[in-house]
Amino acid sequence: MDIKDVENLASLVRIELKEDEKRELLSDMKGILEYVRQIEKVNVKHSVFNITNNNVWREDTPDPREFSKELITKQFPDAQDGFLKVKKIL
Which superkingdom does the taxonomy of this entry point to (predicted)? Predict the structure, then answer.
């Protein structure tokens, strides 16, 4: 990668870069590419971070809960005529 690549990229994204910005961007891009090369070298098969893709499905089991209009109304801070009062949202 060289300055010409940075200039080509800048023209593709339609931005103007000063010479020092081009050099800085080139340095950043070289660093990123070096990091990607290091990651590519990692043997994922024998890595500690190897994640096996097993389907971990569980059966849906309903949790019995008690819901009643009276219970909810009693726990709500403000209610009137069987309705729950909330703040007005604009």
Answer: Bacteria
